[in-house]
Write a structure and sequence with these properties.
This protein is mostly helical and about 220 residues long. Helix content is about 85%, strand content about 0%. The longest helix has about 35 residues.
Length: about 220
């Protein structure tokens, strides 16, 4: 009799799972409540979206973040009226380079040139490439060039601005990115790395925009 009721209980549980659309859920997840299951399902969906459309998602996240951070930096940190061409350049740079460009650099180029491993030696090589090549000679020149072209229609000021701003920018870089990217390259799956960069770059972008654009505005 006890075995009969146990079988009936299992049958009822299986029917309930089917009615709830959870018939394909592995048995090890049956104990999760609705909130836990919904959270795990959202994470799985988000990871799959990043795998299928990495560049589109990176562009959307980083461009929106860049515009909001730049507006905050102008209005609060620098204390002047909003510079709309600068906000436009921030949005384009955020989406095209911080999003799409950095996805390619970190997840495609670094993986191809340095390796896909997550050992300390490989991670340190990626950090060195980011610090000594990508940030000073790619990230900063592209950032300054977009702003100067949109604001002034010329690249004449870019070399002088780069020489005056590369050291302050790298000081801000060293406060944020070596630690973040060490954890990112070592522990975070490729499809979630841009999400980590999205949150960490909020603080980085506020400091970097203040350095690279605040001095230009004051001048």
């Amino acid at each position: 009799l006890k075995a009969f009721f146990a079988r009936e209980q299992m049958s009822f549980h299986g029917q309930a799972m089917m009615l709830l659309g959870r018939a394909r859920v592995p048995p090890r997840l049956w104990h999760l409540n609705g909130a836990q299951w919904d959270f795990q399902r959202c994470i799985a969906w988000y990871r799959e979206l990043n795998k299928r459309r990495p560049y589109s998602l990176a562009f959307g996240m980083l461009s929106g973040k860049a515009v909001l951070c730049d507006a905050f930096s102008q209005a609060v940190l620098e204390g002047h009226e909003l510079d709309k061409p600068r906000m436009l350049s921030a949005g384009l740079f955020g989406g095209l380079w911080q999003g799409c460009g950095q996805y390619f650099v970190y997840n495609v180029a670094f993986t191809s040139l340095i390796g896909a491993g997550t050992c300390t030696k490989t991670v340190l090589k990626k950090l060195a490439a980011d610090c000594f090549i990508h940030t000073p000679f790619m990230w900063l020149p592209v950032n300054l060039s977009m702003y100067e072209m949109i604001k002034n229609g010329s690249l004449n000021r870019v070399p002088d601005r780069w020489r005056s701003e590369v050291i302050p920018t790298m000081k801000v870089y060293c406060m944020v990115w070596p630690g973040v990217n060490f954890l990112n390259f070592m522990f975070v799956p490729i499809e979630l790395r841009m999400t980590v960069i999205f949150f960490a770059s909020i603080f980085w972008y506020l400091g970097a925009t203040y350095v690279t654009h605040g001095s230009a505005h004051r001048a």
